[in-house]
Amino acid sequence: MSSRQPRPSQGGPGIVCVGLGPGDPELMSVKADRLVRGARQVAFFRKKGRPGKARQLVDGLLAQGAAEHAMEYPVTTELPVDSPAYVDLLARFYDDWCLRLEALAQTGQVVVLCEGDPFLYGSFMHLYTRLRERGQVPLDVVPGIPGMVGCWHATGEPITWGDDVLSVMTGTLSEDELVRRMQTAEALVVMKVGRNLPRIRRALQRTGRLEAAWLVQNGTTDSEQVARLGDVSDDACPYFAIVLVHGQGRRPEAAW
Ligand SMILES: C[C@@]1(CC(=O)O)C2=NC(=C\c3[nH]c(c(CCC(=O)O)c3CC(=O)O)Cc3[nH]c(c(CC(=O)O)c3CCC(=O)O)/C=C3\N/C(=C\2)[C@@H](CCC(=O)O)[C@]3(C)CC(=O)O)/[C@H]1CCC(=O)O
Ligand SMILES: C[S@@+](CC[C@H](N)C(=O)[O-])C[C@H]1O[C@@H](n2cnc3c(N)ncnc32)[C@H](O)[C@@H]1O
Description:
There is one protein chain. The protein is of the alpha/beta class. The chain is 29% helix and 20% strand. The longest helix has 22 residues, at 84-105. Helix 3 (84-105) packs across helix 4 (124-134). It folds into 2 domains: 12-144, Tetrapyrrole methylase, N-terminal domain (Cobalt-precorrin-4 Transmethylase, domain 1, 3-Layer(aba) Sandwich), CATH 3.40.1010; 146-247, Tetrapyrrole methylase, C-terminal domain (Methyltransferase, Cobalt-precorrin-4 Transmethylase, Domain 2), CATH 3.30.950. It is globular and about 60 Å long. The structure holds ligand PQ2 and S-adenosylmethionine. Ligand PQ2 binds at residues 45-47, 50, 52-54, 73, 76-77, 81, 90, 114-115, 121-123, 126, 172, 192, 194-196, 238-240. S-adenosylmethionine is lined by residues 22-23, 115-117, 120-122, 146-147, 150-151, 191-193, 216, 218-220, 239-242. It catalyses: precorrin-2 + S-adenosyl-L-methionine = precorrin-3A + S-adenosyl-L-homocysteine + H(+). Homodimer. It is an enzyme of class 2 (transferase). This is Precorrin-2 C(20)-methyltransferase.
């Protein structure tokens, strides 16, 4: 009988991507905490010139001497996402880091850090599908609390009641597409806000949802800001922001 190797998340060789939750380090899972503290090699995505949200989240947790590999996006907002140049740059960036992580994993386990949950608009997905297809190293992914969960808790209000349908959309959609989606949603979450806030605001206005909308910037972190969207301007909204509207579905009312 062949003895099975432990999975990367159990300390075995290979690559494990760890979801770190929305920002407050105490909202990390016990498993994520264990893997981050024990890591000898970590990799994380970031925009050039920025520290990286995932890397900031593990400040003070990494072991002394842990090797750090910053995977810096060649572009984020500099080129249109549907331009051939953007698509090609990103595809080569993911190919390159897939091969580099594979090589690093030959020398010991690699822990990839990811803000929120890795399978919810997380960059690691692009490496995951490549690594899985190549099949050269064991692969594992540890779930994390998504950023939007931290954000609706930051407002102190439940997000869905009764039959409410929750729709999650991205601010990168066109205004008409946002309107179409908002019209059929009771509760809604708009991710990827940043410079898309004016368009999101117009779509909320057109669907009569603006008054009920909230804006949460950097939810659950030290720089968290929570406001009614109607009370804030469109200026300088960070990419790590979420617009949300709570559902108002059926609920048995209290007697007092
Ligand atoms: C182009 C654009 C389009 C879009 O979002 O669709 C896009 N990112 C945009 C902006 C942006 N991205 C980042 C910043 C700086 C944040 C800061 O530092 O403040 C800014 C803002 C800025 O530059 O101003 C950094 C960043 N991005 C991701 C991570 C890692 C992670 O979260 O895992 C980190 C590191 C964060 C960190 O930890 O620090 C992840 C993703 N970003 C993607 C696309 C997808 C991959 C690309 C692809 O394969 O196509 C993917 C995988 C998500 C997905 O799959 O959707 C959009 C323009 C939106 C617009 O039009 O306004
Ligand atoms: C590339 S996606 C990554 C999502 C992440 N994997 C998750 O599970 O939340 C980035 C978007 O997530 C949202 N986001 C994630 N964490 C957030 C937080 N703590 N506060 C506000 N927005 C957040 C923002 O809308 C941002 O544009």
